Amino acid sequence: MELWVTEYQTPSLGFSCKVSETLRVEDTPFQHLSVVRTEQFGKMLLLDGMVQTTELDEYIYHEMISLIALNSHPHPGNVLIIGGGDGGTLREVVRHPLVEKGTLVEIDERVVQASRDFFPMLAASFDEAKSELLIADGIEYVRDNKNSFDLVIVDSTEPVGPAVELFSKGFYQDVFEALKDDGMLVAQSESPFFNEEVIKMAYGGIKEIFPIAKLYLASIPTYPSGLWSFTVGSKNYDPEKISFKGNMECRYYSPEIHQAAFKLPAFTKKIMEMNK
Questions:
Q1: Does 74 lie in the same domain as 44?
Q2: Which end of the chain is less congested by CB atoms within 10 angstroms, N or C?
Q3: Measured distance CA(111)–CA(109) in Å, rounded
């Protein structure tokens, strides 16, 4: 008998992968968590039925949510990650030569444990000398730490359950206050094909608070539509301009990709213009 896992990306569209083994299924205090081994993408982590990361393509998301801002901020010494309990974004942060400390705040410790158990190439970042892992509410943590960080990365799930407030204007204001005078914010802002309202919420909210707000794209096969967006808010530095030019030995990111990611198709620009 064949077994398939399906993420229903819209009420009319499902993304299915053939499963060779079910590794973990549980209800955490915050969400439904499952880890499966797929034939196409290797091990896959899902939260509330939505694909979070896979062995095969995880590097795209993790490089692109972190390295754009890390390489455009001239001194990103102190970095905060909200969410991202699999550890992939933290991996990219702490391997950056200019980063002195990377703090990851994850509300659901079972996500961290699943990563430790099944995704060692991501979870190894928890034990790096420059890393700090906190199991706590990231929203409260941001409110309690003012003028502290050079860069805040919001590596959240979709805006459902505990992640809803991470897309609110009030949260972006709290992040603004948690950043130093030249700080930057990066948030994943979903698919321009299927999640227009999320882009309006994220880009629109960030644009109201930060002097500089820009959206960029990356191609991620296992995320809805395969085209994914990220939004940068900056107090000072233009995220399109590369400051750090060292060799990061990446699999997706490059200086050319950095520049090209901000070249948006017309339909994406139209979504952003709705916030004017």
A1: no
A2: N
A3: 5
